[in-house]
Design a protein that fits this description.
2 helices; 0% strand; 144 residues; mainly alpha
C-alpha cells in the first residue's frame, strides 16, 4: 500500500514525513515552540508598552511640577504687586499730608512683606531653572 492510499482512519497506518498526495512534506511543529514564540513576542510587547508608559508618566509628572511652580510664581508675583500698590497708597497719603518723615514706622511691615515675597520669587525661579536644566540634560543624554 502506498502512502497515497493509506486510510487515515486505519489504526495500523503510521504518520509519515514523506510527501502525501503530492503536497508539501509533513513537518512536525511542536505546540510548545509556537507557544514559546507567542509568549516571547507578548512579553516583548508588554515590556515596550511599559517602557513607553513610564516615559509618558515621567514627562507628565515633570510637566505637572513645572506648571505648579509657574502658577506659584504668578501667585507670589501678584501678591508682591499688591504689596507694592498698598505701599504706594500709604506713601501717597503721607506725601499729601506732608508727613514723609514717618516712612519706616509706616512702611516697615510693607517693606518686610515685599522682601519676603521677593525671596520667595527668587526661590521659585531657581527651582524652575533647575528643572529646565535637568530636562535639557535628559534630552541630551537621550540623543546620544
Amino acid at each position: 500500500m502506498t502512502d497515497e492510499n493509506k486510510n487515515l482512519n486505519d489504526p495500523d497506518a503510521t504518520e509519515s514525513n514523506e510527501h502525501t498526495a503530492g503536497g508539501p512534506p509533513y513537518t512536525e511543529y511542536s505546540g510548545n515552540q509556537l507557544g514559546d514564540k507567542i509568549s516571547d513576542a507578548t512579553e516583548k510587547g508588554v515590556k515596550a508598552v511599559k517602557s513607553v508608559f513610564q516615559k509618558v508618566t515621567d514627562l507628565a509628572g515633570e510637566a505637572s511640577e513645572l506648571t505648579r511652580l509657574k502658577l506659584d510664581l504668578v501667585k507670589i508675583k501678584g501678591q508682591r504687586d499688591s504689596a507694592y500698590v498698598e505701599l504706594g497708597k500709604k506713601y501717597y497719603a503721607l506725601q499729601k499730608m506732608d508727613k514723609v518723615q514717618g516712612f519706616k514706622a509706616t512702611f516697615g511691615k510693607d517693606l518686610e512683606k515685599i522682601d519676603e515675597l521677593e525671596a520667595n520669587i527668587s526661590q521659585k525661579e531657581e527651582e524652575l531653572e533647575r528643572i529646565n536644566f535637568s530636562e535639557k540634560l535628559k534630552g541630551k543624554s537621550e540623543e546620544e
